[in-house]
Amino acid sequence: LFSLLRACFVFHTSPLVLSHLAMFETAIVLLTVEKGWEEERLVEEALRLVSRKAYLYFIGSVSASNLDSIEVRLREILLAFEKGNQVQTYIVAGGKEVSEASARQFFSYNSDVEVVLSTFSTADLAFSLCEYAQSGGLPHTSVHLVGSKRAPAAPPAETEQPLPPYVTTCVGGTFDRLHVGHKVLLTVTALLASEKVVVGVTSDAVLAKKYLSSLIAPSTRRIALVEDFLFTMRKNICFEVVAIDDAFGPSIVDPTIGALVVSKEVVKGGEMVREKRRERGLCDVDLVVVDLVADTASKGATTTEVTGDKMSSSSIRSKDLLRFRFDETHWARTTNPRMPYTIGVSGAMCSGKSLFMKKLSTLGYATIDCDKIGHEVYLPGTEGFRSLVEAFGARIVSEEGENKGEINRKVLGSIVFSDERERQKLNAIVWPLILGRLKEKLEAMHDSGIEVCFVEAAVLVEAGWDRAVDEHWAIIVPESVSVARAVATRGMSEQEAGKRLASQISINERVNRAHVVVTNDGTEGELDRNIEKSLSELYLRRLKPFPIQQEEDGGDTRAAKRQRPLLQPSQLVYRWITLMKMLTVNTETALKWWRVIFDHYSESHRVYHTLTHIDEMFCTLDSVALQLKSPITVHLAVFFHDIIYDPARSDNERLSADLFGAFGLEAGMKEAEIEKVSRYINATASHLDTTTDDGDLKFFLDTDLSILGSPRPKYGRYKLKIRLEYAHVPLSKYLEGREKVLLSFLKKKLFFTSHFDQTLADTAQSNIKGELEGINLYRQSLAASK
Predict the structure, then answer these.
(1) pLDDT, tens digit, for every residue of 399-416?
(2) What is the pTM of this model?
(3) How many CA atoms lie within 13 A of 500 on its CB side?
């Protein structure tokens, strides 16, 4: 009765009432092809209620008379969701009625739906969808109706002109971040096809030389997201999504293509495709031009947000600049608490590091130049001077002039820049001395009351000093700009400048290792604005110290006088510090290894195996905490079991255990303790094949697989995350391998312990069977379309 009342409950759109409603993570929103008078209100309510994902279910058929209006409505609705609430949106092409087979297919693949939002005019379809969802393993799915029971008479239907029967349609693009413009293009392409959609996705090789290409997702992941979007939308046609190494791809090869969908900005490219097809004797194609800019200015969207693929993708990628690029949830400073919060600044030759540091100094920030420290560490009479003379001979010492008796940097440079082995010898001597002197200076700054310091170091990454600072900020410019500046300011030839740049790490490698990326290829005024934006978020991050640091600062009277507000670190950070205290690990080692953990679990190729996964495992373990005999062993295994994770490798567990072994030795653990934790980590390589009487190991393994027994919405998100991590595997092969894994789960008992078996086993079995059904339905749809 309660479920029935919940399903039939009607909201009469009182803002006061709606503001107190619980948010739904995922919903179906029923919309009509011909815009209804109540749908604006429905979209407003959906924006208010949905927090994560919305399936926009369009009811009706597409015709020549309504295609333009559909494009406009798609832009409006998608922009409203993704710009306002940042809700992930999918398009679903439905009909006025829904069959049991199509509903089962939809809910087996999209098992995260919690609510169907509808107006009264589409209530029957809403309740039908809800009924199918509940019978398909989503018992808590409900219906919420918006608006009035009385609706005005529908306007007379226009005479529809059938669209040309395109067997196959085609579209191409980068499809990075899958933004609103992409979704409109893909939706129109899918709606116009009767059998197949061909999508060309720009390959990594084509984008390799593109400025900031490291911020573009790999082509395999972009392809996987396009496949997921298209299959969610229409499951009764075939999709061919491929990487392309030129401007044409399959558009000039496939004879069945009848229409090419393009945005206004690339119509010329579409005409080139038609010309190539005529040259090859293939049938001509119709160009379907989608205006991605029309009517958006009045809706408050900027041109760069919705203009075509290139501009819009670049606009979204630019949001990765000037801000912290990783998950701040579990971030905490990791430098010695007796030093200021330290930001290392790196950049290639002539990237503008010195100007950047000068502007920071003008703003009142403390700065240190490691190049100057480098001069200090090998002054006459120092350990560095003696070591360099011993390594390279007396020839590097000036015999005359003002610098008599000092290291002749020009002579030393001529030796090391022409011989890689000699350069490595120099670095091995100088880099440790510079780092030691840097730490001394930072400690002195802390004693004088300085709280934040920026450290300029051209070789921050190469020397590994990015692990010795709290944050790494990379100053970047295109290589062409660096060369031009070197020619203009240093008197170098273009060849000399290019050779010097080639000896440094690439822009992409620098960006991948940076927490904040600052561009400096514009005017000085633009640099000022970039600095201001980058500094705006720094204040909060530097106020998140480790609990160890809070305790050690407890006796600092200056800190008490300053009364700095402290933000609390995450629970996961507290768990790590608790472990370190129980193991009596010193502060420096604890901070160092948390940084190692944070950096590994923040790698760009991870989607599921992140710190969020580790945090959720601990939350699950809390329910059985009192039953663990050796919680330290289990907790260490949780932290380290996925620290090395590369989906393309088969030895992740062994490598993770090896890295834990390095930590264990540094932490002073006994050999038997290290061996036990390593055994736990290696056991995750063959979860269900493990035979053991170790109760703690059983709890650990059950916790690692507990995601299988999570509620359907959460399981649906897990399923997509795993697919994205394995995006390098073609979809057909991935589904084949995924099916084998899932079937193996069904053949054996999933959980070792009675606690998890009783609480999660039934839900896990249901989730696995639902995913297997979705795989089978996908194969059936492919077979039918072929």
Answers:
(1) 887 878 898 888 888 888
(2) 0.81
(3) 21
